[in-house]
Design a protein that fits this description.
The chain has 13 helices and 14 strands. The protein is of the alpha/beta class. The protein folds into two domains: 28-145 and 282-357, 3-Layer(aba) Sandwich (Rossmann fold); 147-275, Response regulator (Rossmann fold, 3-Layer(aba) Sandwich). Helix 6 crosses helix 7 and helix 9 (230-242) packs parallel to helix 10. The longest helix has 20 residues, at 42-61. The protein is globular and about 70 Å long. It binds phenylalanine (PHE). Phenylalanine (PHE) is lined by residues 44, 104-106, 127-130, 177, 253-254, 256, 303-304.
């Protein structure tokens, strides 16, 4: 009897919770964020979170938006596409997020963007560069450049600055980012008269790359392009040096993590990668940002932190001009972003909801990267 009563009480409580839903505070604007706070890409998610939070704290300190406070709910997707879909669904349906910030990795943005599109909740990815991401639909935006440009920047740099005539490519076959960037690099390198001597692949999570690297070594390329993420790249560069490969390895923004230097160590000396910003810039706007970020988090902001900060900044500006906080109005306000004065450069969104911005090329030596050049689109 008592059991029955307990079961009944539990059921009644459940129905009550379901019918009321979460208590929504009308004075809050609900921002959902998803990212890899743990796993092999954890620095991506953590840096992005830190950048977003800094921007949101500043906006709130300045009075919020139209009298409302911004509140960020950040959920961990562990760097897994299935999880990204789960947590974004939760952010939208349970937490009632009015806008979504994330992801970093293109494959994860691609897993969650259709959910945002279906629910008509705008999503801004700070840093996913694969072209397909914003092609998901008119609710999906980004504040970074895209990979056809990034691939072109590194192919041109290899040929013009490093005098490379031949290149090998070593890509992650499970990553939309890596697959796309490899293709764009190859296309440009060939168009400019270079030759690709080998196109090899690995899968994220691999730890032994020696057999592919041995094949690459036999082909004697002038450079090796590795468009991957820092965990695998660190190991690849180290194993390449162990095998006696001396030529520069190069990559894209996925190299940008303090962990890269911990994993790859001295082997990274003389390698190059492209990114969205350099903390070395003498631009007062960049220096002011680096200073306040360092004061708050005790480290120099990487590209992800800076793009997170800019993505949140673009959102705050759009929230101020939006007719209402309804999905369609918010979408229109974000789409109208023009000349937003970001730390990573001036941000204007084009008809395809992409930002057109310069890239920087960085050179690694002594466990850190330093600025080499800026390439304008
Ligand atoms: N551009 C990468 C992607 O699309 C993500 C990334 C951006 C990683 C910037 C590091 C720095 O997957």
């Amino acid at each position: 009897m008592q059991r029955r009563l307990m079961a009944f009480t539990a059921l009644a409580a459940l129905i009550l919770v379901l019918s009321c839903g979460p208590k929504l505070n009308p004075n809050e604007i609900r921002i959902g964020e998803y990212g890899s706070l743990t796993g092999a890409q954890a620095t991506f998610g953590i840096s992005t979170q830190d950048g977003i939070q800094l921007a949101v704290d500043e906006a709130n300190a300045a009075g919020g938006v139209n009298g409302k406070t911004l509140k960020v709910t950040a959920l961990d997707d562990q760097g897994k596409p299935e999880e990204a879909a789960v947590v974004v669904t939760k952010l939208i349906t349970e937490d009632k997020a009015q806008v979504i910030l994330g992801e970093v990795a293109s494959s994860l943005s691609l897993a969650a963007a259709p959910i945002c599109q279906d629910h008509k909740v705008p999503m801004i990815t700070p840093s996913s560069t694969n072209p397909k991401v914003t092609q998901v639909g008119d609710y999906v935006f980004r504040v970074c450049f895209i990979d056809p440009f990034q691939g072109q920047v590194m192919a041109d740099f290899a040929m013009a600055n490093l005098k490379a005539k031949t290149a090998a490519v070593f890509r992650d076959q499970k990553s939309d980012y890596s697959m796309g960037l490899a293709d764009f690099f190859i296309k440009r390198f060939k168009d400019k008269g270079g030759s690709i001597v080998l196109d090899q692949s690995y899968v994220a999570g691999d730890v032994d790359f020696k057999s592919q690297l041995t094949t690459i070594r036999e082909k004697k390329p002038d450079v090796i392009f590795v468009p991957g993420y820092y965990t695998e790249v660190g190991l690849i560069v180290q194993q390449a040096r162990e095998l006696g490969i001396k030529v520069p390895l190069m990559g894209g923004d996925g190299w940008d993590s303090s962990k890269l230097y911990e994993i790859g160590g001295k082997a990274l000396d003389g390698c190059y990668f492209s990114s969205h910003y350099s903390p070395d810039s003498t631009d007062p706007k960049v220096q002011a940002f680096v200073k306040k970020y360092q004061a708050k988090y005790g480290q120099v902001p990487d590209a992800l932190a800076t793009l997170g900060y800019d993505a949140a900044g673009v959102l705050v500006a759009a929230l101020k001009t939006a007719k209402s906080l309804e999905g369609a109005d918010l979408r229109d306000a974000i789409a109208a972003t023009k000349n937003y004065n970001g730390v990573t450069g001036s941000i204007s969104l084009d008809a395809d909801r992409n930002a057109v911005k310069p890239a920087v090329v960085l050179r690694i030596s002594g466990g850190k990267s330093s600025y080499v050049t800026t390439v304008n689109p």
